[in-house]
UniProtKB/TrEMBL annotation:
NCBIfam families: aminoacetone oxidase family FAD-binding enzyme. This is NAD(FAD)-utilizing dehydrogenase. It holds the Pfam family HI0933_like_1st. Its cofactor is FAD. The keyword Flavoprotein applies. InterPro entries: BaiN-like (IPR004792), BaiN-like_dom_sf (IPR023166), FAD/NAD-bd_sf (IPR036188), RsdA/BaiN/AoA(So)-like_dom (IPR055178), RsdA/BaiN/AoA(So)_Rossmann (IPR057661). Residues 191-358 form the RsdA/BaiN/AoA(So)-like insert domain. It comes from Staphylococcus simiae CCM 7213 = CCUG 51256.
Amino acid sequence: MYQTIIIGGGPSGLMAAVAASNSTDKVLLLEKKKGLGRKLKISGGGRCNVTNRLPYAEIIQNIPGNGKFLYSPFSVFDNESIINFFESKGVKLKEEDHGRMFPVSNKAQDVVDTLVETIKNQHVTIKEEEAVTQIEVTPSHTFKVQTQNNTYESQSLVIATGGASVPQTGSTGDGYQFAESLGHSVTELFPTEVPITSNEPFIKSKELKGLSLKDVELSVLKKNGKKRISHQMDMIFTHFGISGPAALRCSQFVYKEQKNQKKTHIKMAIDTFPDYNHEQLKQTIRQLLTKQPDKAIKNSLHGLIEERYLLFMLKQSHIDVNITSHHLSNQQLNTLVDNFKGFTFEVNGTLPLDKAFVTGGGVSLKELHPKTMMSKLVPGLFLCGEVLDIHGYTGGYNITSALVTGHVAGLNAGNFVFQTQ
Ligand SMILES: Cc1cc2nc3c(=O)[nH]c(=O)nc-3n(C[C@H](O)[C@H](O)[C@H](O)COP(=O)(O)OP(=O)(O)OC[C@H]3O[C@@H](n4cnc5c(N)ncnc54)[C@H](O)[C@@H]3O)c2cc1C
């Protein structure tokens, strides 16, 4: 009989094992795959963006999927606790842009190794290639956990099976079924932090493929043309649509607007010069044109923006690229500025869940005690990490959520004693 069984050896399960084994040496970690922390190893491009140093309020803002739920677990274990944990184990971290924290070594493997060494030192029993198939609550309120080969029993159970994105890492969504089999509800799952697809002729022709735009404002538009969400960051055109940080952040809102508008094709807009208003941009362009009035417009505007995008914008504005500046009418100039400030195009969805960085939706948070991560329905059952209905933007927010909820779940599971009411 174990005190705590943890299902899943990702960041949430590993941190749960660290916290649980602080108070008991009867902890069992079951991992489906060979090797722990497979997704963690590839996170942050193999560098692992392990947490974020922004103030709470900003962290929460960057977790559009129920970030507010984390205020309570943060009061027990927060981003600074994560930093202290790794630095106390000898993994020095460094801060990059937007508060993003990485190991100084730039090796995600160091993060994984630290978690694994800690739980080994704290005598956690680790079983790899041991996929859980079924969970049962016994009449004596313990948990019977069935794998392909064995049955294990424990006083408390932590489900830390992750989401359903990038399933080759082991996160195949098993936890949703486990939670449902124990009476929990799972909200609709959808891909987030995922490239966006479009059938626009300029995408199909691949004329902009590989072109990246720096620091533009990308927006998802509502039915009435107003902006549902905007993100000012870099983006890139691909052979199927758009990607890059701004597109990844907008992706969940494409899904949500498709649902709201009840149609697959919705509109997005790119403002290439978000720091200028229409008039300022018009003046800037006019100045460039008057400097070289006899040159072709494509040459006099050289350097304003990446050349391929300039030519594309001229084409979209029905302006001959070889027209000389003094032949450009005021109306044509206004059209060009309008396109730079708000080029709208249609998108028809995103790549599927298995290609997403993160899974949106998950086990309903209404059924959990946020201070302990224990189920309100099944005493002794704890849930943490991406299996929950929490999802953040890229930037270390998802791993933060996994480590924080994992720590709180493990802490309370390790000390759990069933009490009759
Ligand atoms: C390519 C990529 C890069 C990313 N980069 C970042 C980043 O830099 N920063 C950031 O914050 N987030 C990043 N994310 C998201 C982040 O990695 C996840 O949110 C995080 O790993 C979730 O942790 P978790 O412990 O909940 O789940 P997971 O890491 O998915 O771990 C779940 C574990 O449970 C195991 N499991 C599943 N079912 C069973 C079962 N039936 N029996 C036993 N074990 C089971 C799985 O094998 C897996 O090991 C990235 C994601 C991807 C795909």
